[in-house]
Amino acid sequence: MSWLHRELETMDPSIFLQYSPPTNGLPQESKLATYMNRSTSTPTRSLNQALGKLSLESSPTAIKKVVITEFVPMNYFAQPAILPESPESSSPSQLSGVPNTSQVHQENVGGTTYFYSTNSDSLNTTGALNSSTSIGPPEACMSGAVGAGAASPYATQIYSGTPTHIGPMTSKSGLAASFYMPETIRSEIYERNDDVFLQTDPRQFPDLPENVEMYSELIPLEGSAPHSIATSYRALHRHTGEQYALRRLHSYTTSATKRLEMWKQIDHPNIVRFHDWFTTKAFGDHSMVLVYSYHPACVTLMNKYLSGGGGTNSNDANGAFHDPFSSDPDAPRPYTHQKNAMLRAVASGALLPEAVLWSLLVQLTAALRAVHTAGLACSLDPTKVVMNGCRVRISWCGAIDALHANTNDIGQAQQDDLTALGRLALALACRTIHCDNLAASMELVARTYSADLKNLILYLLSSSTARRSVTDLMPMIGARFYTQVEALERRADVFEDQLAREIDNGRLLRILIKLGVVNERPELNLDASWSETGDRYMLKLFRDYLFHSVTADGRPWLDQAHLAHCLNQLDGGTTARVELMSRDEQSVLVVSYAELKHCLEQAFDEVMQAAAEGP
Ligand SMILES: Nc1ncnc2c1ncn2[C@@H]1O[C@H](COP(=O)(O)OP(=O)(O)OP(=O)(O)O)[C@@H](O)[C@H]1O
């Protein structure tokens, strides 16, 4: 039986097709013919000329009954290496090289007909490449960056692997562990996503107003203690859909908002951004609401390092030291208890590595520097410093200024900030806020940490009348500043690597979506000129090759690396060739990925146009 008949037998979906006389030897209803006729840039004429020389074993009848066979995947995976050599006799054109003619030749190997197209390289792949990055119209895609150069990077788009300077990242301790271990970064991102996507149902808080100015879906922030002065909420901006943190000052309002205006100008990576304020009666009183950026999965320094976060062991999941007195922070503590708490922290290995302490201090001094330079002060407090990941931010800045509008002495408030930083540094070093006995606490610091850390704390806590400044801390921080910068650079490297992977994933997803959209659309299946013909037929065979390959003994052949490799080749529209076998295994088309990509773009555009046409 000739390949032509075998093609006809598998043709789908019409039961009876009116026979059209062959044009140059190729019947028009043949899937191959419809593919080869699909555009002027394809080798229609050459193919038809080549096929015109074929001698058919039998002539088709006037009306051909088409048998629809059930698909059985039998397109055994074949490496390009096993493709037959280009037959010298069947075509004057070359298989490889840079062809400038549109020619097709064929060869029959063991009853299977191989069709070679030699013009695929001359397809205008650049345009197709650029549009492939998007599943929408070209202007909506992010292809600007890749389309700009003459040689598109997509032309060789295969995943480049992890750069050698990134890995291997074996387990590390101290700053490295929390700053740039990929697993740590990944778990931080999951935590944030959990916070954003696994949202608490606002209906759990029926007492809260549905809308407060431009904000809705108010949820009290986890951990916020209900009291009469202030409450914190997470809320959604009704227009932008973005999340914000709201700080409501109960039954309070002020017209002295000069400092709040100044806070609005401060944009610093270690300060939670203050955006706006407004007054409202939505809560049933006359409240003032301050609006801040929302940082998902935040935890206060107090909860993370100083109060044990409710953990039952001396070390909780965050590595926080559990102080048995923390349930009652106001309880008086005898000296021995303080010292014992610190010694237990030492014994249980709960003390923070010095590099982590310096990282926190560098970030906090950077924040204080920005605040003080702007002529403001922020009342540093471990319950008002939040962390997510390894980033520290001072939260609710400006709330004190709203409450004590313009009355407090900024110079004194800045000195208080430095003292508060000293207390915080000491508390972090001892893993407890109960460091009232300065001598005992400093003894522990001196025993465990460097002299620089001890001097920094002593400087900040000194009661001399000399005016202290945050810039004086720089010599004490010294070269540790470089450690922080280096850690951040390493972190940026890890992010870049992860981003490169995500970009690749995005590309492959887009191309998979396109293939899925185009292949065997049920609503167009009744149209014989669509799913089984033209560009779509090639894509269908490619889909079979990609996902339905089987081993020689008929088992599914699965190799995800091969899948990703082929999809990358398709997205890149490379000149590499792939052999696509018809489902009856009697015909094989040898096409380049550039040609397949062209088919995909055309077919996808058709679907897009059909979708845009409307009823
Ligand atoms: N900008 C922010 N984005 C996201 N979460 C935040 C932000 N600022 C603070 N948080 C989190 O909100 C929670 C509550 O903070 P809040 O300061 O209201 O707590 P609180 O201990 O009740 O303080 P107060 O008694 O002063 O109200 C904390 O767990 C903190 O991590």
UniProtKB/TrEMBL annotation:
It is found in: Cytoplasm, P-body. GO terms for molecular function: ATP binding; poly(A) binding. Keywords: ATP-binding, Coiled coil, Cytoplasm, mRNA processing, Nucleotide-binding. Residues 470-606 form the Pan3 C-terminal knob domain. Residues 479-517 form a coiled coil. The keyword Disulfide bond does not apply. GO terms for cellular component: P-body; PAN complex. Residues 518-615 are annotated as: Knob domain. ATP binds at residues 247, 383-384. Regulatory subunit of the poly(A)-nuclease (PAN) deadenylation complex, one of two cytoplasmic mRNA deadenylases involved in general and miRNA-mediated mRNA turnover. PAN specifically shortens poly(A) tails of RNA and the activity is stimulated by poly(A)-binding protein (PABP). PAN deadenylation is followed by rapid degradation of the shortened mRNA tails by the CCR4-NOT complex. This is PAN2-PAN3 deadenylation complex subunit PAN3. It comes from Trichoplusia ni. The lineage of its organism: Eukaryota, Metazoa, Ecdysozoa, Arthropoda, Hexapoda. The gene is LOC113505127.
